[in-house]
Specification:
By secondary structure, the protein is mainly alpha-helical. The chain has 18 helices and no strands. Helix 13 packs antiparallel against helix 14 and helix 15 packs antiparallel against helix 16.
Length: 413
Amino acid sequence: MPSPTTPATPAGADRDAVSPAAWKALWGSALGYAMDGFDLLILGFMLRAISADLGLSPAQAASLVTATLVGAVVGGVGFGMLSDRLGRVRVLTWTIVLFAVFTGLCALAQGYWDLLFYRTIAGIGLGGEFGIGMALVAEAWPASKRARASSYVGLGWQAGVLGAALLTPMLLPEIGWRGMFAVGLFPAVAAYFIRKNLHEPEVFVQRTKTTEKKSALRLLVADRRTARSSLGLVILCGVQNFGYYGVMIWLPNYLSSRFGFGLTQSATWTAVTILGMAAGIYAFGHVADRIGRKPAFLGWMLGAAIMVVTYAQLTDATALLVAGAVMGFFVNGMLGGYGALMSELYPTAARATAQNVLFNIGRAIGGFGPVVVGAIALAYGFQVAIALLALLYLVDILALWLLIPETKGEELA
């Protein structure tokens, strides 16, 4: 294949070339996001063991997830703004250190309140991961491949949760929930060393030299069009996270209580759902690069609304396995598009802030998913709780249609 400097190579191909630095940025961001996914899903698998050991009520157990995600909002705002001022790579390293330290401290928790504190601070570190990594990758990759690049970062999360689904049944009985939190430190260490070799994207370096420093938060509502986009994205991210956490945190418990699945069986069914999610994320990025961001989101939202209702009605184990993969394809496949969409809607001076603030506000809203789904499931059954999620995807479609512009192929400002 000709190199980008070969005279015979068309100019369009130059613009589409992916540099080694872009691939490094992708790997570093994806691994960090994998670490986050691993940590959050092992928490879902460990809630029963933690509750038994520390004497937690169901509400207290669910609040550990919520506190982590609310902490992510605080970290998203703070670290996003720091990243837009001080650089993507440096601030990413800070987030990983904070996350790693307090994840490790969770293994030493003696009761509900100190564990809640550790989870909240770990969430603050987690909050910086998504947005800064997505901004870093979006700035390093060409416009024609930006959506698939952001989907590859999203696949890092799925790799983490898949690892949690496969490792937890093997390790939890042997090392306990405290040991599982200690295991969560290893990907954090790997991510730290990978990021030491990353460099700031050229577009960030050039824009920070020539652009006047402005409040990144104000740039999210700089004019009517931008404010509408920000509102629309909060709705999109809120619904996507509410559906994801509402399903994934309670899925193992649902399979266990309704169908009598043991830990290994629940983990297998959850892993298949996660594989479906990974396929959905991968496909979303490629579809969004080909036909546009809005058509891709619309297709996935409709699919999610249909599948959550379908899944809640199934009673056959094999049907649950297959439908779980299809449901996962749509419910979390949209994660593959947020990084590119938000990168294209906001300038370099506010790109990481936009990614972190808007997505993590959505993630905080989604953090109430386990509590709401759990409460409705307790009163009316899990089938009713999960089916009600379909209504949220209809709200999602309206927000997409009315508030979000198409950005396919736009160069970063």
